[in-house]
Amino acid sequence: MTSxxxxxxxxxxxxxxxxxxxxMGQMDDQxxxxxxxxxxxxxxxxxxxxxxxxxxxxPGRIVIPSEVAIRETRQIPFExxxxxxxxxxxxxxPWFKRPLDEGYQARLQAIIDETIDSAFxxxxxxxxxxxxxxxxxxALTLLLNTSMDKAQTWIDxxxxxxxxxxxxxxxxxxxxxxxxxxxxxxxAIAIPGDDLYSVLLNSEANGKKLSKEEVKGVMILTFAGGRxxxxxxITNSIAYFSENISDLKRIDDEPEILNRAVEELIRYFSPLxxxxxxxxxxxSVCEHAIKADTRVSLCWASANRDEKVFKDPNNxxxxxxxxxxxxxxFSHHNCLGATHARQILRQLVLSLANKVAQIETIKADxxxxxxxxxxxxxxxxxxxVSFKSK
Length: 390
Fold this sequence. Notes:
CATH class: Mainly Alpha
Largest sheet: 5 strands, mixed
Number of strands: 12
Mean pLDDT: 95
Number of domains: 1
Organism: Pseudoalteromonas fuliginea
Helix content: 40-55%
Number of helices: 14
Shape: globular
Structural class: alpha+beta
Low-confidence stretches: none
Distance between the termini: 24 Å
Radius of gyration: 21 Å
């Protein structure tokens, strides 16, 4: 008889000591140091001040770990600052708000139901590779408005399109994505359809028709930006409910708390730890000097545990009345795919509440990020569970 796995829902605050002592941390990233902003107020302030803390630096540099070595294409609108950023957002927002449509949600629900029903049939399964990854990939077909059969290709890529077991920056793996997108763009030029590629190729932003390189930039962001983050959110939520099944039952009994519960799970787990910016001039944060052309981190995960803002920040509280979390970023560059991600979580959590009686964790391999002196649990490399239906 195996002993019960416990503690999988614990995600300690890796930044508490530094946040309370100075509000700042430091880490090195490929010999391009990063000053980490840790408090919610200062993270929001820096995120809003794109004139001083820019996103439009060299492509790949604002990502942590930096993707400068493996990417020359600028991700759009992620790596574009105002005023041009606004033109791209105006074009893209209606498309990325489609998850709010009833028809979209019905198709998403069919994917979720199939995923859960398959989990019931298995004696056990790895939530990362056999549940969250297929669910994320199949849901992405809805966002791109393309055929479901493409999902298997994306599943075969694994949980991250730029990283492998051996490297945080795998150029060979990244090139698979780039070549795939180039091929899909050429296909859309030859035979236009109603998919996202075709729509972008026939669209304008900021008074100009989008170039193939700009379309590629949007698509790289779409594939990379919402992949491991959504997988983390799904997996971590299941880990939480495996040890807090009464909270899942409560959602079944009180579906009116669903949105509040999902926002709290997203705050607590913060599926993306941080995102960078590059200083355009000498400045300071928390009395810490920031030199021009150096990087800062907007540390979402630390800000979401800021004890000055959140009561009992290290507890999951579905009754939290004030929850200004920034898991999807803040201000101009808030996450383009937030509506899609939220809708997946809302429908998944409600479906789990309706269908699942128990989740038992069998084996867990935690995914620990090494960030200078910090070590943060961001999710799982694998999480083997068994689902019991009602």
